Amino acid sequence: MKIKILLGLAGISAAFLMSGCGEPRAYGKVDNTPYPTQECRQQLSRGTEIDHSQKIDKIVVYKKKRKLYAYRNGKKIYEFRISLGKNGDKGNKIQAGDYRTPEGSYCIVRKKCDPRLYRSLMISYPNAADKARAKAKGVKTGGYITIHGQPKWNADGHADRYTLAHDWTEGCMAVSNKAMTALWRAVQNGVKIDIHA
Residue 3 CA to chain centroid, in angstroms? Predict the structure, then answer.
């Protein structure tokens, strides 16, 4: 019985670590209640989450500035503050578990109704260059890098000032839930994203 429990806990821990992003643990009481996702999933299945009048065609991230910009036909539509991986200042992502945010050219490949971190946009990391770099070093690239919103304990944005002033993810780019809602309505799969140092 103890072995089954330990294996179950190990599996949960592994799934959490493989997810690509964690939660900030240095502020207030953590609410482990998940976000409801049924309505979100229904919108995705019908394609009704997109506001076609607000669609964007490119995202550009500058890690050093902690900024994400969204464009339509070359015109900046949105500018959002972001948090990065815990080692966001230590260069490009090299391998799984290094807590760095990747740099390079990618695209949005999936929208996810995330029960832990208010909605997420998965990027196409690792690309060919990332895979080649990791192979040369004999390491695994990792994956599941996203742009996502806040953990449930900050669903109302009361701690945005804190969470957006610190790097706390496992490599993802975190925005406020308000920003995530805007991106969610504006982004379709295939939108290009360039991430710069």
Answer: 34
Q: What is the tens place of the pLDDT at every residue in 49-73?
A: 999 999 999 999 999 999 999 999 9
Output the domain CATH number for residue 72: 2.40.440.10
Please, which residues have CB within 8 angstroms of residue 151's CB and are 6 or more apart in sequence?
23, 24, 30, 31, 116, 117, 118
Number of domains in the chain: 1
Beta strand pairing call for 75-81 and 67-72:
antiparallel
Q: Model's pTM, two decimal places? A: 0.85
Could you tell me the residue range of the domain that residue 119 belongs to? 2-196
Q: How far apart are CA 66 and CA 62, in angstroms?
A: 6
Q: Give dist(CA 98, CA 151) in Å, integer.
A: 21
DSSP assignment of 140-187 equals ------EEE--BGGGTTSTTHHHHTTS--BSS-EE--HHHHHHHHHH-
Contact 25, 31 (CB under 8 A): no
Distance CA 72, CA 83 (A): 23
